[in-house]
Amino acid sequence: MWRFITLAFVAFIATSHARDSSEDGIAPGIKKTNCTCGWANRSGKRIIGGQETEVNEFPMMAGLIMRRLYIPGIVDKENIHFCGGTIITHRHVVTAGHCMHDQNGNRLKPKDIGVVLGAHDLRKLDYKNPNVMRAPEKLILHPRYRWQAHYDLAIVVLPYVKFSQIIGPACLPTQRFDVAAKVLKVIGWGFITPQGPGSDILKKTDIIGMSHKQCSLIWGIMPPFEINDPYQVCTYQPGTSQCLGDSGGPILWRDPFTNRYTLVAAPSYGTSTCHTHPCVSSDISYYVPWIQQIISETYPEEKTCAKVD
């Protein structure tokens, strides 16, 4: 019997590492972006096998923290990391819709969570510092959200965040984006094995985009897990282990023309066995109009960044 669980971060322990030109630095490409976005902070050393990121390597990474996790007789802890997210403006973080619910399916309120930015090692954070643990103003769920299998996207609205070298936005797609056969990068504080525990250190690895047709052959026979074009994408890495951790965190594509990272997907779900099925994620390029609508309705002075074609 198949056992499905929400996928947070799909931590593929890759058998090979797909090298790209950005691995040796952060030089801009031949095309510009309309504002600064998608950069990486690297020392020039190469990290093999999809393991620990360099400190503050990905400034767009956000962590969602449950201020208190209480399950009677099981757990009572404070400041538990439970989901990832991606910075897209000074006030907006994109994440998964199911990250807006607790373990019982109840909607979370802004007071229930905090957002950490510029983090690498979760053990070293001062959660009492409001500049570290930022309090959301609003949690906005996609209006058509229906469990993690459909329209699984949300936006966390924050007080103004000052950008720096270690905190800044990902670029957004300028048009519909096909992930099939593309090398993508996923980052997060994901579980190292299916049994956990989660990593305290931010990790990264490369994954491969898969076509809807290929993915549906695997998932489509198991309703309600049919793969829906146009708002979902699949990723996979044959011969590797898939593990769990950061729902809603970034799946990034390095645009070769800008040499900057574009947010292309946010993980939704996978299987508890971690290696039998592809990861299904929300296709960010489909949701850009909704994202822009929310920005306009909350802080219209905020602008997202993207490639200038």
Automatic annotation (TrEMBL):
Keywords: Disulfide bond, Hydrolase, Protease, Serine protease, Signal. Residues 47-296 form the Peptidase S1 domain. GO terms for biological process: proteolysis. It comes from the Eukaryota. InterPro entries: Peptidase_S1_PA (IPR009003), Peptidase_S1_PA_chymotrypsin (IPR043504), Peptidase_S1A (IPR001314), Ser/Thr_Proteases_Immune/Dev (IPR051487), Trypsin_dom (IPR001254), TRYPSIN_HIS (IPR018114), TRYPSIN_SER (IPR033116). One of its GO terms (molecular function) is serine-type endopeptidase activity. The keyword Protease applies. Pfam families: Trypsin. CDD domains: Tryp_SPc (cd00190). Residues 1-18 form the signal peptide. Belongs to the peptidase S1 family. CLIP subfamily. This is Venom S1 protease 16.
